[in-house]
Amino acid sequence: MLTIETGGRRASTLERLAAAPVRPGEDGIDWRTPIDRSRWFFCETLTPLYYTKVYRDLGTEHKLRYNQLTAMMANEIIAFMETEFLVAALTAVQSCDGNRRMAPDLHAAVLRFRDDERRHADIWQNLNRLSEPEWYASVNRRLMNIPRGALMAARLIARRPVAFPVVFWIQLAQEERSLEISRRCMRVSPEMMEPRYATAYGAHLPDEARHVQIDRHLIDYFYRPRSIAVRQASALLFRMIVGTLLVTPVHSTGRVVRVLAAEYPELAPLVPQMLRQLRELGSSVGYHEMMYSRRSTPVTFALFDEFPEFHQMRAVLRAYEPKPAWSRVK
Ligand SMILES: [Fe+2]
Ligand SMILES: [Fe+2]
Predict the structure, then answer these.
(1) What does the pLDDT look like over 78-96, one tens digit per residue?
(2) Residue 165, helix vs strand vs coil
(3) I need a labelling partner for 269 at 20 to 30 A (CA). Which of 77, 182, 299, 303 fits?
(4) Ligand 1 center from residue 183 Cα (angstroms)
(5) pLDDT in tens, 218-263
């Protein structure tokens, strides 16, 4: 049976997380002025090709366009996660509340979390429509290239978070990644960054910091009390998802590279090399440090340490090495 601690300290933290004011900045984005194509949309160090040798052979105009395409791809993926994964999971969490007596403060925090994600998804989709009005006039996705079976599985498990508590780990890892994306983009000089993108990342950052805290509470509530068999199965599933879909830049980044070469035909001879070097990033320490590491995803890694069934994440995440219990900071 699932239980929940109701200590006064934790309750007040959740109340604060649920009651944080909605900042007006997001609604203040100028959606009318055409996009500035001379600026970057993303931090260069977040783009996978940056970690390959072939990136040094690209011209400035190629790097700029690759940067913009990668940001649009990220917008598609984040909006997909927010609308079809997180909102579905959070709605399911709420509806199972009746039998499980979820504490009112956690319930309020989940409601607020879901509303935030709907609002965020609108912003990413608006950014893409502003960036490529023709591409996104009738569809929301042009660059995201996740295998159909994986999309269907993601939708299925998101609707059943109690049966598949791996949902909360996917949620935590992806939200901590989103937080790192905002952090890095906020460090790019304002003269280089497209101002609407800069505003969106700035607005997303504090919300995602709150969501990561709520994700920890959801893991405490829905995952921690489960049997060892359920926990081991969840850890195995998570390892497969991270290893095949989340960490290696193959599917969507491959499509971005092909779109880039279609726009700049002089790059066509380099495409096989780019795709090969992208696949090889699975063993790149620098790339893994950026994606998932104690610096970029500290909460996720600290929770891996706490649950022995997640220590095997080192098999797919090069930057993860479990910390011995005695060295963990409480
Ligand atoms: Fe979000
Ligand atoms: Fe979030």
Answers:
(1) 999 888 888 888 888 877 6
(2) coil
(3) 77
(4) 14
(5) 999 999 999 999 999 999 999 999 998 888 887 889 999 999 999 9
Domain CATH for 262: 1.10.620.20
Q: Considering the domain boundaries, does residue 315 fall inside one? A: no
Closest ligand relative to 208 C-alpha: 2
Residue 243 lies in a domain: no
Q: Which listed ligand is nearest to 90 at the C-alpha?
A: 2
Single pTM value for the model: 0.89
Residue 230 carries which side chain, given as an amino acid letter? Answer: V
With vertex at residue 185, the alpha carbon angle to CA 184 and CA 191, rounded to the nearest 5 degrees, is 130
Calpha distance 77→231 (Å, rounded): 27
Q: How far is the CA of 208 from the centre of ligand 2 (A)?
A: 5
Give the integer Cα–Cα distance in Å for 103 and 97.
9
The token duo for 35 is: 């996009």
Whether 3 is covered by a domain: the verdict is no
> 């260069």: which residue's tokens?
44
Of all ligands present, the nearest one to the C-alpha of 176 is 2
Domain range holding 115? Answer: 35-225+250-281
Q: In the chain, how many domains are there?
A: 1
Tell me the three state secondary structure of residue 292.
coil
- Is 194 within the bounds of a domain? yes
